Amino acid sequence: MSRRGRRYNSYSEPKLNMKKVLGVIVALLVIVMVIVSIVNIIKGGKNKEKVANYTYYTAYENGKFGVINNEGNIVITPEYTEIVLIPNKSVPVFICTYDVNDQEGTYKTKVINQNNEEIFKDYDKVEAIDNFDSKQNIWYEDNILRVKKDGKYGLINFEGKEIVPCEYDEITALKGVTNNLLVKKQDKVGLINEKGQIIINTDYKEIKTLKEGYKNEYAIVNDNNQYGIMSTTGTVIVEPKYEDVKYLNNSELFAVKEAGVWKVIDKEKQILIDGGYDNIVEAKGENVVVEKGGKYGVVTTKNEEKIPVEYEEIKYTFSIYYIAKTGGKYGIINLENEQIKGFNYTSMNYVEKGDFIQADLSDTETVILDNNLSEKINGIVSEINQEAGYIKVYSNNEYKYYNFKFEEKKSSDILTANNLFLSKKDGKYGYVDKSGKVVIDYIYEDGTEQNSCGFAAVKKDGVWGSINKVGAIELEPSINLDNNIYTNFIGKWHLDDSGLYYTK
Fold first, then answer.
1. Which segments within 33-137 are labelled E, that is strand?
2. What is the Cβ-side half-sphere exposure of residue 200, based on CA atoms within 13 angstroms?
3. CA atoms within 13 A on the CB side of 228
4. Could you tell me if 95 and 88 are in contact, meaning their C-beta atoms sit under 8 angstroms apart?
5. Which residue in 65, 114, 283, 486 is a FRET match for 12, CA 20 to 30 A apart?
6. What is the per-residue pLDDT across 183-228, written as a single tens digit (0 to 9) for each?
7. Model confidence, pTM
8. Could you tell me the end-to-end alpha-carbon distance of the chain, in angstroms, rounded to an integer?
9. Positive or negative torsion for Cα 162, 164, 167, 173
């Protein structure tokens, strides 16, 4: 197996192990070799650092798939008929499929590295473990690969080290949960973590997540079609004796279905809400959103109705406020069922990290409401980045940036890793540096900010091209992207219509 960032020169090593020889000349030779070795260590460290800075992407050219890096350079020549998977964009481990038989549902895989060398050849099959959230966004389990040998499955890491021997009938992801894996033996399933440690023994018919946002705390277990809840440490929280079960946010409340209706219990198994509801949606503190007959309301854990079950949708926002839907429109009510914001919005969503509400009046107008329900930002919201803590808005024919305190900021204050910034003048776009100095003149019809690879897309005469991080033309405007929202370039490569891989 080829390894990255070797910290010594393989040609000098044997010499360093030579037997000691008397004499000044030999002593000097040893000193020279030590110096050479130190230089090689430094160089090796630098090379390792350089490799680690690469990010890899699937590429498509002439009907074939390969791999490029974030500089737009070809790493694996596009020569594979099936898409090349990259489980971790920063690690040069690429999984290629071949000999695909759609009728029989069979295929083969091989793993290659950035040097186009096949690795992990001791296994019959090596695959990435894919996972999905509720919106079908895909990711791959971190630093884990599923391997098959002699009809059984195990796990290795990206360095090829065995984590779990090939002893299971199947290994799959637990949907929506990072680094908790389902394992199967003799038609029974259990749960292991990314280190191969057993969390839940293979004693159950089924194990699944409780709901969106599950954070490695609890799992639903199915024992002969009777459902209960276990912690990911293996502790039974709710005995498997119900028709269905749910965990309600972080409230330490559980919804259980019995005799066709839902009720709410606590960890001590006490019944708190028993109103014959069709569904229990979510809980915040003692207030629980319920559904009955296709309508929604809020009741307390003392089984007291706070908001009548009469709305088309209800979801918690902050404080005592709830987003509600009636007549096909959204508004905001309080726990006294008083209307706080009129039902004038086409959609409403609470952004928890920013503690604000994104309220759409139409496809082209959005209002940002703070936790006092005051209007703070108005325009077309093109991006809410919860990780970086900013809101990008298109207003008055230009893009504006705001932090989560709703303070307008320069793009240079927000996009701190960039060295060029999109600027508009007299209806045309150009680029300036951090000091505001014009680097690229105002000659473009449209443009994007630099992406994480340092490239920006630019539009001229109705077609798109790209510039690199120093402002030089990387690709002359030549690509029609009118039906493609992904104007994201890596050199001469751009995302296809699906946004799954890069093409020319």
1. 56-61, 64-69, 74-80, 94-101, 106-112, 118-119, 125-132
2. 32
3. 17
4. no
5. 114
6. 999 999 999 988 999 989 999 999 987 665 545 577 889 998 999 9
7. 0.73
8. 32
9. negative
